[in-house]
Amino acid sequence: MARPTLNGPGGRSTSVPPLDTADMQGLVSRAYGHLPLARYLLCEVADAAAARGWLGSVAPGVSTAARRDEGCGLVVAFTYAGLAALGLDHDALATFPRPLQEGMVTPHRSRILGDDGPSDPALWRWGGPGTPVIHVLLVIYAPDEAEVERELGDRRAAFAGALAEIAPPIEGILQGGVEHFGFADGLSQPVLKGWPRRTASVRPAAPPPPMKWEEVNPGEVVLGYPDNYDKPAQGPTVGGKGTAAAALPPAPWAPGRRHLGQNGTFLVFRQLAQDVGAFRRHLDEASATTAARGTPLSPQEVGAKMVGRWPSGASLVMFPGGDPGGAGTNDFGYHEQDQTGFRCPLGAHVRRSNPRDSSAESPAKSLISSKNHRVLRRGRPYGLPLVDPPTQPGEEESAERGLLFLCLNSDFERQFEFVQHTWLDNGFFAGLCNEVDPLVGPQPESGGGFTVPDTPVRRRLTGVPRFVTTVGGAYFFLPGIRALEYLAALGA
Fold first, then answer.
1. What is the Cα–Cα distance from 213 to 191, expressed in whole angstroms?
2. Cis bond upstream, residue 389 (ω within 30)
3. Helical spans, DSSP H, in 94-237
4. pTM of the full structure
5. Ramachandran region of residue 62, left (φ > 0), alpha (ψ -120 to 50) or beta?
6. Interhelix angle for 276-292 vs 299-307, to 10°?
7. Which of 154, 219, 223, 360 could form a disulfide with 235 if both were Cys (CB 3.0 to 4.6 A apart)?
8. What is the pLDDT of residues 153-165, one digit of tens each?
9. Which bin fits 390, alpha (ψ -120 to 50), beta or left (φ > 0)?
10. SS3 for 440-489, per residue?
11. From CA 189, how far away is CA 377, in angstroms rounded?
């Protein structure tokens, strides 16, 4: 049976039940932009009974989407192996989606995600086949260095004997909403239909965009609610017997079972190292090449064409002549305003990651399709910015810096993996020929290409190197609060 049409322009309205934000972890509602420091702890379960006891004690203090944490924030997530290590039975484990069960580093998934060459999982420092198995991810958000160290010490003392860290903590720090390549980040995010309020993400709030571009059904991110097919986003289930299970809502699609996934979501976590020096050198070299051909582009213009936005975050569609110095608005489409890509190239990063209404034949269907593959990003940079000349120790080009990419979605394959494989890493996206995403794509060793449409002749940039390398990653289940309490009660 064909699935119902995605809700969108001209489609029917979907009635969304009230969202239980008190049962959702805080990462669903915010990226903790008011807490600039973060520590990401990768742990294994050292003692299952002790780990369940720890989880029971910590669950009431986990940040929720219903409140804003003015002190420190805490996020708790589990891999498939971690859920098994806690003691979740096979009957329940079998209801988790295949990507979570298999993990991120199967040969099939590595091909889908472009994890080859220097991004081969065999080279990863965590999450790869030669590294310790991850069970639990803890994320601590804090306002300053003193608070993050205090919170880190308290959390370690609380899980001592229950969990064991398998890698050094990864340090994330916001840098005014700008990522290491120098561009504003976190500007275009889906808005969940029925959300009780509008809140800022990593960036300060921009003027609210028309919902036709951004609004999606809540089931695209949060399990248990209608997704863009007007079907409940199905998550893992457990048997209906027992006091702990009774606190979970029934799963309508699985009679007699309870929905462990209700108000939870699935989390993608990838550590992406950025070669900022190579990026800057390429902009200079590409600029010189265009000047030699008589069609000059400045280094800033080359970078903007590759990204699809100016460094301030302003869209090339809205401001083709230069950076206005502010993010402006996301109230733009490609079909009527830039069908040819003369303003924002067809292969630019933001156009690939969210094509909006790009289709020449059916823009409405294109927008519906684009909404069907959105993810909610929750990442932040790590490492010191590259400053030329360096102003403090550690800023030199050899020091590693990059992005801690986190995103939330209800369907790994339809959302995150689709965007990565079919849009970002697709060499034939939008009719192009052997061109992957110029910013984050897995370029060949000899360098890739990037086409800048223009009149009377297009510009063809060559020798684009790989700027981003994956150095770690894993898939996680981010439970709701009641699900955390259920997991804590296993074996009771």
1. 9
2. yes
3. 98-102, 107-113, 145-159, 211-214
4. 0.94
5. beta
6. 110
7. 223
8. 999 999 999 999 9
9. beta
10. CCCCCCCCEEEEECCCCCCEEEEEECCCEEEEEEEEEEECCHHHHHHHHC
11. 7
